[in-house]
Amino acid sequence: MTTTTRSEDRNRDEGDHRQEDSDVGYAIDTDPGRLDVGLVHHWLSTDAYWALGRSRDTVERSIAGSLNFGVYGPDGGQVAYARVVTDRATFAWLCDVYVAPAHRGRGLGARLATAVRDHLAPYALKRTMLATLDAHELYARVGFVPVPDPERLMMLSSER
Fold first, then answer.
1. Distance (Å, rounded) from C-alpha 47 to C-alpha 53?
2. Burial category of 156 from C-beta neighbours within 10 Å (exposed 0-12, middle 13-18, buried 19 and up)
3. 85 has which bridge partners?
4. Mean pLDDT, 10 residues at a time, the chain of 160 residues
5. What single string gives the DSSP state of each residue in 3-60?
6. What local confidence, expressed as pLDDT, does residue 2 receive?
7. Which terminus of the chain is less hemmed in, N or C, by CB atoms within 10 Å?
8. Contact 63/97 with Cβ under 8 angstroms?
9. How far apart (Å, rounded) are the C-alpha atoms in residues 121 and 139?
10. CA 157 to CA 45: how far, in whole Å?
């Protein structure tokens, strides 16, 4: 797998960071201009339990305000997506992780989560969080652990 990341933080070095794995033929890229926004919207709004019915406008605004990771197949088409909401100083939230059904079972989710972890590592964030209904084992392989003190967490939600 090739990993190409383009830092949006002007304080970090510009350029590509690549890891080659010619057997797989997939590439991960943080270039938001490469994202197929229509496809990401379709995936999230029709197949992702946490985002069913999400509007195209909301997806576009979330992409604009986030660090985005696209996974691209051997033909260059997008096959997976994840985004990170972060201040690049203390905190990050990994969300909207999605792998197209035809590409599941190939380890792309774990590779994507690993690419996110590795991309965020230079920032030395105090905490990177996520929420998952059914992928605990996948994220544990990348280093995520259950929140040790969930009673401290609170949220403000528009959902009732």
1. 9
2. exposed
3. 93
4. 48 36 76 97 97 98 98 97 98 98 96 98 98 96 95 88
5. EE-----TTSPPS------TTT--EEE--GGG--HHHHHHHHHHH-TTTTT--HHHHH
6. 57
7. C
8. no
9. 16
10. 19
